[in-house]
Automatic annotation (TrEMBL), chain A:
Keyword list, A-Z: Kinase, Membrane, Phosphoprotein, Transferase, Transmembrane, Transmembrane helix
Record-annotated Histidine kinase domain positions: 217-421
Superkingdom of origin: Bacteria
UniProt-recorded name of the protein: histidine kinase
Catalytic function, reaction form: ATP + protein L-histidine = ADP + protein N-phospho-L-histidine
EC number in record: 2.7.13.3
Organism in which the protein naturally occurs: Niabella pedocola
TrEMBL record, chain B:
Lineage, highest ranks first: Bacteria, Pseudomonadati, Bacteroidota, Chitinophagia, Chitinophagales
Domain OmpR/PhoB-type positions: 124-224
One Pfam family hit: Response_reg
Response regulatory domain span: 2-116
UniProt KW keywords: DNA-binding, Phosphoprotein, Transcription, Transcription regulation, Two-component regulatory system
Modified residues (4-aspartylphosphate): D51
Record's protein name: Response regulator transcription factor
Amino acid sequence: MKLINKISLWFLCIILVITPVTMIISRAGIKRKMIEFEEKRLLSVNERVYNLLKEGQPVDDFIRDREIQIAAVKGPVPRENPQVVRRVDNAEGMSEKELALFVTSYRQVNGVVYKVTSHNYFINPSEFFSSMFITLLWKMLLLGIAVLISARILSRILFKPFKSTMEAIRNFNIRQKQKLQLERSSTREFNELNCFIETMTNKAMEEYATAREFSENASHELQTPLAVLRTKTELLTQTSLNSQQADLIEHMQTEINKLSNITKSLVLLARMENHEFNTREKIRFCRIAKNVIETYAYWADLKNITVTRNTDSRVFIQIHPTLADILVANLMRNAIRYNEENGSVHVELTTDYFRISNTGAPVTIPHKDLFRRFKKGSQKNEGVGLGLAIVKQICEVCNFRISYAYVEGRHIFCVYFNENYLSEIDGIPSNSSFQRVVFAEV
Amino acid sequence: MKILIIEDNIALSASIRDYLETEHFICECAFGVDEAREKLSIFTYDFILLDIMLPDGDGLDVLRFIKAEKIVSNVLIISARDALDDKINGLEGGADDYITKPFHLPELHARLRAMYRRNSLQGSHIVTANEIELDTNTIEARVHSLLLDITPKEFDLLLYFIVNKDRVLSRQAIATHLWGDYTDNLANFDFIYQHIKNLRKKIAAANGNDYIETVYGLGYRFKL
């Protein structure tokens, strides 16, 4: 629910509650004032009658137009003096009620106790309640409309800086070198928010720069000792060695090689997580794929593996060229490495997917673990175990999905470039004996 | 040929120096930006090896200094950083080539020689080893003046051998030289054997001597 709608609703609720309450209060006030005033008037009338009686003047003239009864009573002046009686009666010949007010004063004049009663009728205050109620409805309706309309207009004006801030945040990219600059507004809260966001993004950018620097430095710090090790063993190989020593050096060199590959791969993964390879450009994926496949054809040849290719031309995909190269290379390398003598590799490329399938023995680990770091299909193989983790990461960075299936003695890896992947997956013959994994988290 | 090695790691610097001195380079070492600037303003060098990350500054500053002072040397950048922008910065800043750590010493040497051939006077594009003659411009190999039918990769391999003659070249070094990053994560380098076998066959067919010898456990050597 929009904030402005919430606020409007609150206002409407407040109006709905407050206006009837004020109406009741004002009705009670009017009623009280009316009766009080009338009582006072009747009392003063009684007082005038009493004054006339005291002065021995005739009262007939005075009471002629007024509703006053004068009577002499026996006995003392009652304790309750004056007496006020209210009575609600039907008005004569009408269905509405009227209020009758009787004020009786007792006064002793020349030893005689007179009872002076004056009365008056007026509209029962309950009667004008209905007209007040109609006013109330009008009031609430007008207020409601006013609130709703003004809220819409005001929100557009008041929330303008907020909306521009949101837009700025949406377009903010931590890899951009320039800092986030937000407009200043006349609203203090928004300024505070903007200040807060600016500080936060600046801090995030600093942290990002530090993290990036760290990953770069870490690789530097590891690669330099590795370079020392490698060059020293190379210098050692130039000296005269016996076969035992040569063996030892060869093992060292293999391990140095592995270490170097691991650090390179980890740095690549870190850099992808830092979104350093984000791109909006579309490249000719088909060309890169073709080049990489041709490069690997030589290795395939050595194992007597036939590589067949069915690649569409003019396949433009939004991906960083370096990543495209690594993606195809890692899958291709896998297809050759986990293949058998005289096996085959088939590569398919359309605008929707890139699929690579190869012959080979089934993997021994659960399929979902294939894409995890340092998990290998078979331990005897000397790969590092990061190739598919990198492939998966590339797919995440580029919004691709990757699936793996083992069907009829073939490993099938498929990278889907868009949402059409679901129908494609259904195209794979279903068979309860094989597992199928799709990584579609985006 | 005179070379300035700007690298802050003493052990690595010593390795490079050892290797290049036996290849008849005259080596001098600088371990920081200031020292490098000082040496560059006094002496002239044919080659400069430049590490990007130095303790007292950025190697790219040295590169800028070299260009500003109009020093005519071949600059080869060595860096552990293979970040793309570094590569671009280095090459746009006027470096001739770029090599990432951990590199193979024969690779470094081959790059230096290649830079030299590119930037030197006429005739330097011909590399010879007894009866074998390579033309790096046309990518043609001749044995006893007879043109060999070899692939570009085989040409590269032969050139790599001749440039690093009498050196033991490991299979990894050969693989990295020929295929670069594609050999990353490739545990098995047995395919190099096949490659060398083909090359030997072709040279032998042209009545060339077999100079390539297998060094047990280590790799291969081009022995003249």
